[in-house]
């Protein structure tokens, strides 16, 4: 009995130690997702470094974080707006930026990658970071569709590598999918679950399967809406209205595609189609391909109205 109690106390204190360990977070990629993850991590008291390829992009990310925080503050301090600015500044103080990932990961507990949805680019990044980061640092990818095991294969820390899949817009969406790849250790997985909870999110456990849970259902649905429109069976506007009013979705599928980014959606579907070309759910869409080729990526390029909705 005493042994069981000692074991229990030891397991509690070790999980508390693991949780306490993730204090410093490096987010790579300051786009739609990375900026949102940085905001939420900073808002929950973590020290955050946000990395991207240029100062200009980082300036845009910082502006996006500030305007999102203003929306949060407007609601939170509706009765006392004067406290809102101090709230925003306190959170912004937790975030610094850099264009040199290798140097900033030297002091980090967790790297969350949110760069372009491309296996080779993600592998190159993690391969380089693996040499620079300390032993204890956990690596996580926010990939929407790529196998975590494939991304992790460019590193020698398969046990300290997992998936942390957030949802857009990160400050509003409560879910995080925590992905345990075959090489992910239980300790790493538990740390990622704890970290998600520390961000105020609701984690669900996922296997390393295509699209995990949400995207395996959501992406074929969005693409089927495009195909329905391509067949001439409904206007984009009517399909969006139908799914909002008839199925209770907060956004219609075209609106959501614009919100997610047409480039990211294309990367996802093309990757799955390449692996499973006979699956009609993963068939590429001529309309999506055309819009991406024209540089119309949805909300992120401010052409949402001219692209899908
Ligand atoms: C591709 C992948 O790998 C995975 C994915 O992410 S798939 C995409 C998953 N996401 C979704 O499905 C999103 C579906 N949409 C929604 O849930 C909702 O439309 C939404 C939460 C985005 C917005 O809510 P809404 O009520 O429809 O619209 P809206 O009036 O703009 O927002 C309401 C309030 O939410 C808050 N809000 C919305 N977006 C925000 C943001 N980015 N930051 C902070 N606050 C925000 C604000 O308080 C806002 O009020 P204000 O406009 O006064 O600032
Ligand atoms: N858009 C969405 O709704 C969601 C996207 N994701 C995933 O998150 C990841 C990022 O997606 P978004 O934020 O939408 O993309 P985005 O295009 O908005 O941002 C990507 C950012 O990464 C930067 N970047 C590219 N290569 C880099 C490198 N080597 N080093 C540092 N920065 C680099 C780019 O400059 C850009 O700012 C993708 O893997 C995507 O599949 C996951 C959940 C939802």
Automatic annotation (TrEMBL):
It catalyses: (3S)-hydroxyhexadecanoyl-CoA + NAD(+) = 3-oxohexadecanoyl-CoA + NADH + H(+); a (3S)-3-hydroxyacyl-CoA + NAD(+) = a 3-oxoacyl-CoA + NADH + H(+); (3S)-3-hydroxybutanoyl-CoA + NAD(+) = acetoacetyl-CoA + NADH + H(+); (3S)-hydroxydecanoyl-CoA + NAD(+) = 3-oxodecanoyl-CoA + NADH + H(+). The record marks 165 as: Important for catalytic activity. Its EC number is 1.1.1.35. This is Hydroxyacyl-coenzyme A dehydrogenase, mitochondrial. It is an enzyme of class 1 (oxidoreductase). Belongs to the 3-hydroxyacyl-CoA dehydrogenase family. It comes from Cyprinus carpio carpio. It comes from the Eukaryota.
């Amino acid at each position: 009995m005493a042994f069981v109690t000692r074991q229990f106390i030891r397991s509690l204190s070790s999980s508390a130690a693991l949780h306490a360990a993730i204090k410093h977070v490096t987010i790579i990629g300051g786009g739609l997702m990375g900026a949102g993850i940085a905001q939420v991590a900073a808002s929950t008291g973590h020290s955050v470094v946000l990395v991207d390829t240029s100062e200009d992009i980082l300036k845009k990310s910082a502006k996006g974080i500030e305007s999102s925080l203003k929306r949060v503050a407007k609601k939170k301090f509706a009765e006392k707006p004067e406290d809102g600015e101090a709230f925003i500044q306190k959170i912004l103080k937790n975030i610094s930026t850099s264009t040199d990932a290798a140097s900033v990961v030297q002091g980090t507990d967790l790297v969350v990658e949110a760069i372009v949805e491309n296996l080779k680019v993600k592998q190159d990044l993690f391969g380089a970071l693996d040499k620079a980061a300390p032993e204890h640092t956990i690596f996580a990818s926010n990939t929407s569709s790529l196998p975590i095991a494939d991304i992790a294969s460019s590193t020698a820390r398969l046990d300290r590598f997992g998936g942390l899949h957030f949802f857009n817009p990160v400050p509003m969406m409560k879910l995080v999918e925590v992905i345990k790849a075959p090489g992910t250790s239980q300790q790493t997985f538990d740390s990622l679950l704890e970290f998600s909870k520390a961000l105020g999110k609701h984690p669900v456990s996922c296997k390393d399967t295509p699209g995990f849970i949400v995207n395996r259902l959501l992406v074929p649905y969005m693409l089927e809406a495009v195909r329905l429109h391509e067949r001439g069976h409904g206007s984009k506007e009517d399909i969006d209205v139908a799914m909002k009013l008839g199925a209770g979705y907060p956004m219609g599928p075209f609106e959501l595609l614009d919100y997610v980014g047409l480039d990211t959606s294309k990367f996802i579907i093309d990757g799955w189609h390449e692996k499973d070309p006979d699956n009609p759910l993963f068939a590429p869409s001529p309309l999506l391909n055309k819009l991406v080729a024209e540089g119309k990526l949805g909300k992120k390029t401010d052409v949402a109205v001219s692209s899908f909705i």
